[in-house]
Amino acid sequence: MTRVAILISGGGSNMVRLVQDMTGDHPGRAVLVASNDPQAGGLARAAEMGVPTAAVDHRKFPRDRAGFESALLEPLLDARPDIICLAGFMRILTPDFVQRFAGRMINIHPSLLPDYPGLDTHARAIAAGDKQAGCTVHLVTPELDAGPMLGQARVPIMPGDDAAVLAARVLVQEHRLYPAVLRRFAAGDRTPVLLER
Ligand code: GAR
Q: Comparing C-alpha atoms, which of 195, 196, 169, 168 is closest to residue 181?
């Protein structure tokens, strides 16, 4: 069994999809859902699904990213994960933390990377006049949103779309893409998953 820990910051809809998919012949099982926000809605959803949870409030570590990360490492290492999935985890991780899990930590990002790393991806794609948007799952490397691509899903940008409408359209695809990538990745297969709507 491949042990999978999931880091979240918010509602955790991607996390729910990952956990729901990890049954039957899936090589992975969820061993921990952890958040930097004790109020994150996803923590309760994980607990309802029977997955152990942990919260380490980053606000207790002002200007101390390393201190936050060493506190986060305690429950994380206790869970002995083989793979860490970032699923709407909104803290930037230090190179030290990333290196510790090199090749074993993956992230979903709401753009067609390498376009639009960072925040406000949908507003930026609309402002640029792009015809397509989407989401990318990639290996996490020290450079933000820049690791090797493991999967991508595309959606059209329609006339009149605002960022919220586009985000909702992309999120539907995130919920298809991330479980598909994790299934492959947990089986040791890094062939990219490419989804068209
Ligand atoms: C998702 O759209 C995810 O791609 C994005 O946050 C949302 C989390 O939603 N992640 C990032 O922006 C990472 N930089 P969820 O909590 O419902 O899964």
A: 195
The residue contributing the CA closest to ligand 1 atom 3 is: 88
**Location of structure tokens 């709507």:** 197
| Domain residue limits at 32 | 1-101
- Alpha carbons 12 and 114: distance in angstroms, whole number: 24
Q: How far is CA 116 from the centre of its chain?
A: 16
| 7 and 91 inside one domain | yes
Among this protein's residues, is 122 annotated catalytic? no
Structure tokens at 95: 């190179």
Q: Do 40 and 92 fall within a single domain?
A: yes
pLDDT at 168: 98
Q: How far apart are CA 15 and CA 98, in angstroms?
A: 20
- Is the pTM of the predicted complex or chain greater than 0.95? yes
CB-based pocket (< 6 A), ligand 1: 8, 10-15, 42, 87-88, 108-110, 135, 171, 174
Q: Are residues 1 and 73 in the same domain?
A: yes
CA dihedral of residues 99, 102, 108, 114 (deg, nearest 10): 80
Pair 96, 165 in one domain:
no
CA distance 135 to 157: 13
Mark the ranges of the chain whose per-residue pLDDT is less than 70: 197
| Contact (CB, 8 A) for 28 and 83 | yes
